[in-house]
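FIELD: query
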Amino acid sequence: MGKPDQSRRAFVWRSINWTKVQRYVFKLQKRIFQAAKSGQDAKVRRWQRLLVKSYYARLLAVRRVTQDNQGKKTAGVDGMVVISPKQRLEMAEKIKGNLKTKPLRRVWIPKPGRDEKRPLGIPTIQDRARQALVKSALEPEWEGRFEGTSYGFRPGRSAHDAIGRIYTAINQGQYYVLDADIAKCFDRINHDYLLSKIHCPSVIKRDLKQWLKAGVLDNGVFEDTEAGTPQGGVISPILANIALDGMARLIETMYPKASGGKVKATLIRYADDFVVISPSLDIIEQCKTAISRWLKPIGLEIKPEKTRVCHTLNPIQYEGKTEEPGFDFLGFNIRQYPAGKHRVGKINRDTRKTFLTHIKPSKKAVTAFISIIKHSNNTW
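FIELD: result
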């Protein structure tokens, strides 16, 4: 099951029925998702083992890293980039299991609109293919477990969905907001903590340990990776999401919905950026303290210089300085403005609602976009 109908030797890459391949893999993933949602852990493990052994799943993993992904022409420490159909078929055989992971290649890329650079750890193309295979087995399980207000690096979810969720949360009232960022999240995640959260078949756990401890080559100098899930690997985003899963549940447990359905606090997260929304400043401060404490066992902390407390409508005094209303999140500025009684066409708006919620691109995002255009066209 999961093998092509014809002999592998005669199997030509270009003749693969990708619709059939994708349908088969999706069918297994759906079973994993449903088993995870219903708490049938033994079935989850069984389907995951079957998926990582499947020839169809391996073909799809190779295709994703050698044809579909933007970084398909980026080599790891071995300098290898898979190009020919023959090499792709060979790789589908090689990633079957028991691979020895090679160190990551350190690459520094500029941060948009800044002089700073951020480090990427690029695995070899073969390791990336194996990571894509393992991700295809882990992702449906965790999609059945992840919190509903987590939006980053998840299939079918985007930054716009996160912004839409914020709009829904604040549109009917005026709120205090904790706008926070986790310092060097991908570089500092505690490996033991992360692995303790993942209950998977031993073959997958072995791979995860190897990738986390692979080390990095930076200009020929080898460095151990004692913590973190280096950005650049296919598997890194889902591992970061697994590590941070539970933050929203912490807030829900601390402040459950009132009997009338009124929400006391809402946490919305996109990867390592998050906001907490509440009508109470005291609750916001308590959430900040609780989240800081919750992050410590993971090896993480809130970044003070990129964290602020504000109000959606009014300026507030906080920790000795004036915080202007509104906040920036995921390239958007979200703010409320006072609004009096008025009419739009023949529709009377609710006169009790004395504000309007407005979302627009942030100044920082606009500046970064102009910079990209300026450098790409070389005309301004």
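FIELD: remark
Residues 343-347 have pLDDT under 50 and may be disordered.
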